[in-house]
Amino acid sequence: MEEKKQLIRESHGGDIYRGRRIRTDFSVNVNPLGVQPVVIAAVREAAARISCYPDMHCEALTDALADFEQVPSEYLICTNGAAELFYGAVLALKPKKALLLSPTFSEYERALKIVGVSVHYYVLKEMESFRVTEDFLEYITPDMDMVFLCNPNNPTGQSIPKELAERIAGRCRECGSFLVIDECFVDFLDSPSRCSMKERLGCYPGLLIAKALTKLFSMPGLRLGYGMCSDRDFLCRMRDTLQSWNVSVLAQAGGAAAVKHCGGYLAETKKLIGRERAYLIGALEESDFKIYGSEANYLFFRDFAGEERELYQMALDAGFLIRDCSDYRGLCRGYYRIAVRTRPENERMIAWLRQL
User: Fold this and answer.
1) Mean of pLDDT values over 317-323
2) N or C, which terminus of the chain has less Cβ within 10 Å?
3) What pLDDT does residue 287 have?
4) Confidence of residue 2 (pLDDT cuts 50, 70, 90)
5) What distance in Å separates the CA atoms of residue 354 and residue 102, rounded to the nearest whole number?
6) pLDDT at 11
7) 276 and 204, same structural domain?
8) Number of domains observed in the structure of the chain
C-alpha cells in the first residue's frame, strides 16, 4: 500500500510510528548505548507480577534512586515520566503567574495552561548563543509564583553554571517564587556537578529538581521520572494531585535495576557522548551549519538555507528523523536538533548532509 501520509510533526520528537522509511531516529535524545540488559531482564521477571497492583509508594525504587542520587529518600517522588512531575507541581501550587525560558521544553507551558496561569517569558537571544544571563534575575519578581528552568536547556543544549543557578534560587526564595529545575540532561554534561543544584536542595525548600530515567538509561517506553525536593509538605501536596498507582510494576522494576547496575554503563556513555558530540559538531560546521550550545547529548543548529530547502522532509526522505525546532516558542524555520548517536549512525547522517 502506498504511503499516503508524511510523518506528522508533533510537539516532541520520537514519532517513529508514522514513518516507515526511518532508519535512524535522531529526533530523541536518548542514550545511544540502548537499554542495559539487566533492565530488560528485570522487566521480563516483573511481567509475571502484572496481575498485581504496583507499590503505590514505590519503596524499592525510591531506595534505589536515593542511593543513586545520594539524597535522602524522603526528598524523592516518583512519577510516570518527568512530564507528570511538571503537571503535579503546577496542580499542587496552583500559581497565578509563572516565568519560562523561550525557547524551552513545551510541557512546562502545557502544564501551566491547565490552571490558567499567566505565563511570562525570558527570551533567549541568538546573539548571546541562547544563553541564560545575569539579567534573568530581573524577571523574578514578588508576584512571580513559579519559575521553570531547564538545565541544560532543551533544545539549545546550553547549561546554566551553578553559581548563576544558585543566585536564581536565592532570588526565588526572596520573592517567594517556587523554582523547578529540569535536570533530565545534566548527567550528559562533561561536568554535571558544575551545574546541578542537587547538593543545595536542603538550602532551598522551594526548589524542585526534575529528572527521569528516560534519556540517560534509554528507556522512554517505560515512562519513569522522579523529583527531588526538601519540602516534604509540598511533596505530599504533589502526591495528592497524582493518580494512584501511577508508576507501573514494570517501570519500578526496570528503574531500580537501571540505577543499581550502572557504573560501567554510565562511564561508557560519557566517553561515547564526548567523542561523538565533537565529531558531529566538527562535521556540521564543515557543512556550514551554525552550532549553538550543544553541551549535552544533542546538537542544536541552524540551517541558513532553511528558506530555500526543507531539511526535515529531506532527512525523512533519506531515512533520518530529526527534530524540526520551528514549533518551539521563539524559534523559526531553519532551526533543528539532532541527537548524538553511535559512530556508524553519525557517519551515515554526515555522509548524507555532505551530499546536499
Assistant:
1) 93
2) N
3) 92
4) very low
5) 31
6) 60
7) no
8) 2
